[in-house]
Backbone:
């Protein structure tokens, strides 16, 4: 979806689509009103993509932003901004789609596994926000045919765009690094919104799910301009865990890492020399592994 053009309304078949209305429903996590997808901008915790989106209306009113961001419920975050709507940034109609897309990218980068899985679960079906009256962000049930939803469904369409992005750029630099929008006054509490960079958090998450925390040593080298340069993360990851991880992932065919066959045997020999039990040595087989994030390329574990 491109900003600055009049959007066309579409008709969706509810039965054939992934529809969300309530946050606790199957696809409810796709709603900005869903809890459980926390964000962090400029090191400020934000409880939902709705709160972030609404805060972006008021870049020159930090007090209103604070009020919005202090709400526990995403719906209340939207509601408390309502009395200030006339102070919404002047170009809001022109930038709101861009801002919503950016919010969703941040939601994905910072909730990679949960939100990614949810997007994946929609396969290539239409995603539609079922709304009682908002036919811009969502679509509204047709009065004469309840199975039809009619509206611009801007949120659903952005989610489908994000799903495509996720499928194309999985484990890529672009997935974890979300640059701020180049629009005037993209501010939070008076400060320019900074790049969101989730690479280290993602790796830490991998460490946790691979249960090999103590075995991992991360040496994080950041070049001064992280936006234009790759970052190399070097880890000592147990080979078996790395394999498991990538085999578990649906992209295993392209991301699978072949275990270096010589290493366990070598370690076994070494272990024998020092009297360590062979079984233990085998289990501990590790290798130096680099995980490299390259702009526009998948993240590839390199041997
Ligand atoms: N009022 C309301 N209730 C819900 O349950 C909703 N899902 C929404 N829609 C969301 O509101 C956001 C846009 O709000 P404004 O354009 O600023 O009014 C967006 O996240 C919609 O998905 N609204």
Residues:
């Amino acid at each position: 979806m491109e900003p600055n053009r009049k959007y066309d309304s579409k008709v969706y078949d509810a039965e054939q689509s992934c529809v969300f209305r309530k946050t606790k429903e199957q696809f409810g996590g796709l709603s900005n009103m869903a809890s459980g997808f926390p964000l962090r901008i400029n090191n400020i915790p934000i409880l939902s993509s709705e709160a972030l989106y609404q805060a972006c209306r008021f870049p020159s009113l930090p007090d209103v932003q604070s009020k919005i961001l202090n709400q526990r419920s995403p719906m209340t975050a939207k509601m408390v901004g309502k009395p200030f709507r006339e102070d919404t940034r002047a170009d809001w109609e022109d930038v709101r789609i861009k801002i919503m897309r950016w919010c969703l990218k941040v939601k994905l980068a910072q909730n990679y596994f949960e939100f990614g899985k949810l997007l994946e679960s929609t396969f290539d079906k239409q995603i539609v926000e079922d709304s009682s009256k908002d036919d811009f962000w969502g679509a509204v049930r047709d009065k004469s045919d309840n199975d039809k939803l009619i509206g611009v469904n801007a949120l659903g369409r952005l989610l489908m765009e994000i799903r495509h992005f996720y499928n194309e750029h999985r484990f890529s630099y672009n997935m974890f690094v979300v640059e701020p929008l180049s629009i005037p006054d993209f501010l939070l509490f008076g400060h320019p919104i900074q790049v969101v960079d989730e690479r280290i958090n993602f790796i830490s998450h991998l460490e946790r799910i691979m249960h090999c925390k103590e075995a991992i040593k991360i040496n994080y080298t950041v070049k001064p301009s992280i936006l234009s340069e790759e970052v190399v993360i070097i880890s000592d990851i147990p080979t078996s865990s790395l394999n498991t991880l990538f085999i578990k992932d649906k992209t295993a065919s392209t991301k699978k890492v072949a275990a270096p066959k010589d290493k366990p045997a070598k370690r076994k020999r070494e272990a024998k020399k020092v009297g360590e039990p062979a079984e233990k040595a085998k289990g501990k087989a590790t290798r130096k592994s680099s995980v490299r994030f390259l702009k526009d390329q998948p993240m590839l574990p390199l041997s």
In short: The pocket of LIKH6CAM is lined by residues 31-33, 50, 53, 78, 129, 134, 137, 155 (CB under 6 Å). The first helix runs from residue 49 to 55.
